[in-house]
Specification:
alpha/beta, globular, six-stranded mixed sheet
Length: 197
């Protein structure tokens, strides 16, 4: 069976400040570009059955700088729609909603076209991605690499491991990292997490 490699994009201004960033398409910082370039040795030397990325520039640019060729944008890899909490930090949210938790409380609607998403909605997107790449992984046609965003990749990890979407809360994911999901005795497992060169 092939491995599933998960690449979180490099740092942006908002990932550095802790602001929720979904549809705001910020560029990588200089540090974020260096993070992306440094991932190349972790990704080369593999045969990829699929190389997919979120359509947002920060993910596409990370894939390019990391040396991934032929990456196909996939809208299902888009980050969680944070609705009315776009650009807002958890600390700021707690001022008006003490104890708020993204994984259990969700987000209020934002501007038109951004109603916000629940863990279950993200889980449905993750399940669609896993269904599309499943045959390639099962047939050992090569590895699959996904370049995307922290919260989405955390939910996808939970779903790959057979957990409910909200259990993505268990998997902290840093910018500019590669994580690898593999199998052991036919079951999905975490083989590496948050790897940096």
């Amino acid at each position: 069976m092939g491995d599933l490699l998960l690449v979180r994009h490099g740092e942006t201004e908002w990932s550095r400040s802790g602001q929720h960033t979904s549809y705001t398409d910020l560029p990588l910082t200089g540090h974020g570009e260096e993070q992306a370039k440094s991932l190349a040795p972790l990704l080369t030397g593999r045969t990829y059955a699929h190389a997919l990325a979120s359509p947002l520039d920060r993910a596409i640019r990370t894939a390019e700088l990391a040396g991934l060729a032929g990456v196909v944008p996939d809208p299902d890899l888009h980050e969680w729609d944070y609705g009315g909490y776009e650009g807002v930090t958890t600390v700021e949210i707690h001022r008006t909603r003490p104890g708020w938790d993204l994984w259990t409380d969700g987000v209020p609607p934002g501007p038109q076209g951004h109603p916000g998403e629940s863990p279950e909605q993200i889980g449905a997107r993750a399940d669609r991605v896993l269904a599309r790449i499943g045959a390639a992984l099962d047939e050992d046609a090569g590895d699959v690499v996904l370049v995307a965003h922290a919260h989405f990749l955390r939910v996808l990890t939970a779903r790959r491991l057979g957990l409910p979407p909200a259990e993505g809360r268990l998997f902290q994911l840093a910018t500019g990292t590669v994580s690898r999901l593999s199998t052991e005795h036919g079951r999905p497992v975490i083989a590496e997490w948050n790897r940096q060169p």
